[in-house]
Amino acid sequence: HQVLNQVHNHTSVGTHVGASQVQAAPDHHSDEKENERRRLLHVVQAERQEQAERSVLISCHATNSEKKFLKHLSKYGDIKKHFFYQSFGLYAVVEYSSQESVASLLEHAAIPTVNHESMVPFKSRLLSLRSLASVGSADQQSGQHCQPQTSPPISELIQRLSREESIDQQITALTEAYQLTEENIRLRFLVCSLLKDIAAAYFPECTIRPFGSSVNGFGKLGCDLDMFLDLDGISGRNVKMPRSGLSLEYHMKSANSERAVTQSILSVIGECVDKFGPGCVGVQKILNARCPLVRFAHQPSGFQCDLTANNRVAMKSTELLYLYGELDPRVRSLVFGVRCWAQAHSVTSRIPGAWITNFSLTVMVLFFLQRRSPPIIPTLDHLRDLAGPADKSVIEDNDCTFVSDFSKIHIHRNTAALGQLLCEFFDFYASFAFNKMSINIRKGKEQNKPEVVPLHIQNPFETSLNISKNVNSTQLERFVALCRESVWILQQSATNSPSGESGATPWGLAALLQPLQVPGNKGRKRRSREPASERIKSLLESLKIKNQS
Ligand code: CTP
Ligand code: MG
C-alpha cells in the first residue's frame, strides 16, 4: 500500500515547460521556485483524477450553438470548464464544479429508444445531445472552437521548422507542436475515469490510473493511453488480525499465481468493456503477454487504449522518466526530436514487431545524456542513493527506490545546446558497440551484454530483463545507418543553413524528417569512410560558432 501511495503521489502530469524555459540556460542550484513547481506537480495527478470525476463527455452533433448548449447544461449546476473537439463528430468535455451536478444531469438523461435495436442499459458519463430543432446547417455548426487532439502532419511540421533560425529553435518548436495539450491530458484522465466506472461494477474501490507517455512528459498528441487498474487501495489489505479473540476476514477465491489473478480480472473486465462499454470498440484480450492487457479503441476520444493490472513496475518507470524529464528541459526536447525523427523513418511503428519502441528510444536518449561530460542527468544508482526512507520501494523483489525530492539532486553544469546534443546523439549511436555492450541507465555506463541479442537495453527496475529484446538485427542496422546519415545532414545544415531566410528548403531538423538515403546507397558509403569523430568535430565547431553569434 505504501508503494502505491508513492506511485499515486509522484506520478504526475502538469503543464509542460514553455518555449522560454526550454531556451533558458538552466540554473539548477538555487532555483527554489522551480523545485516548488515540481513538488506541486506531484499532487496534480490526484487533482486531475478528481477533476475527471466531475466531468462528462457529450457527443454534440445536434448542437446548434455553444451558448444554447452551455445554457442547457448549466441547468444542472456550475460549469467550471468546457471545451469542444472533433473525433468522428463533435464532442464536448464539460467539467462541473461539483459531483452533484453530474448526478443531477444523469438523473435527467433518457435511455434512447431506437427502432430495430436493443440497448444495453449501462449508464455512463458519455452522453449524446438531442435537439428537436432542425439540425445541421453550416452556420449553426460553426459556433464552436475545437481544440486539436492530433499533432500536425509531418509535411506541415517540416515547413514550420524550416522557417526557424537555429536547430535549437527547431527542436523547441517541434516539442511545442507535438506535446500533449492541457485539453488532451484532461481527456485522457476522463477516459480513465469512465473506464473506472465500468471496472467499479466489480471492484467499487478500484482506481484506473494513466501511465506511460500519457503522463511521463514524453507523450505526443495521438499516443496511446496506457491504463493501470489499481486494486491495491482496496480496504482490508492492511487490517491487522488481532492476536486473540474473534475477528472476521473475507472468504475469497484463490488462484495459482498473482499472474492468474491478473488474467482473470482483466478477462472479466475486458468482457465487460466489450459488451457494455459505451464507445469502446475492437476489444482484444491479450492475456498471455508478459504483461497481460486488454486493448481497445475508445471511439469518442479517439484513443487507442491498453488496460493492464498489477503493473506497478511500469508505474515506477513512468515516474522515473517523468523525473528525468523535469530535471532539465533539454531532456524532453531531445526525446521529442528523436522520437519524431524515428517515426518519420519508421524506426518506430504503432504495429508491434521487431521495431525499436518509443520507450527504448527514450532510455537511449537518457543514457546518452548520462554519458555527456559533464553528465546532463544523473544515473539511476545515484538517484537511489539520494532516496530517503519514504522513497523506499520494492516491487516483486525489484528495488525500485529512487529519490523523489528534486532539491536533493545536484546537476552538473553542462550548457550544451539542443542542436549540438541532437547531433552528438546520432554520432554516439552511429558508433556505439551494440555487438558487445548493453545500455544501462542504472549505472550510466555501458555494460557487457549478458546475452546474445542485437540490442540490449537493461530494464531499469527489472534488471534481468532487456526492454528491447524484440529488436532484430535488420532494425538495429537501419537505426545505425540512419544515425550516420543524420550526422551528415546536420553537418550540411551547419555549413549551409539558410539562417534567416523565410524558410523555403528544409534544413537542420526539418531535413532530418524528410526521407533519407537508404543504407547501401553509394553516396552514403563514400561519406561514411570519413571517420565520424572527424566529421562531428567540424560540425560541433560550426554549431558552437552559430550559438555564439
Ligand atoms: N514499459 C516497461 N517495460 C517495457 C515496456 C514498457 O516498463 N518493456 C512501461 C514504461 O513505463 C512505458 C509504459 O510501460 O512508458 C508504456 O509502454 P508503451 O506504451 O510501449 O510506451 P510509452 O512510453 O507509453 O510510449 P508510446 O508513446 O509509444 O506509447
Ligand atoms: Mg504508451
TrEMBL record:
Coiled coil region boundaries = none
Classification of source organism: Eukaryota, Metazoa, Chordata, Craniata, Vertebrata
The superkingdom listed in its UniProt entry is Eukaryota
**GO CC annotations on file:** mitochondrion
Q: Please tell me whether the keyword Isomerase is annotated for this protein.
A: no
Which residue ranges does the record annotate as region Disordered? Answer: 15-36, 516-549
List each copy of the PAP-associated domain by range. 418-462
- Which InterPro entries does this entry report, sorted A to Z? MTPAP-like_central (IPR054708), PAP_assoc (IPR002058), RL (IPR041252)
List where Basic and acidic residues composition bias occurs: 26-36, 529-538
The processes (GO biological process) annotated in the record are: RNA 3'-end processing
Poly(A) RNA polymerase mitochondrial-like central palm domain residues: 167-325
> Keywords of this protein's UniProt record, alphabetized?
Magnesium, Metal-binding, Transferase
**In Gene Ontology terms, what is one molecular function of this protein?**
metal ion binding
Name assigned to this protein: Mitochondrial poly(A) polymerase
Under the heading CDD domains, the entry gives:
NT_PAP_TUTase
Q: Which residues form the RL domain?
A: 41-109
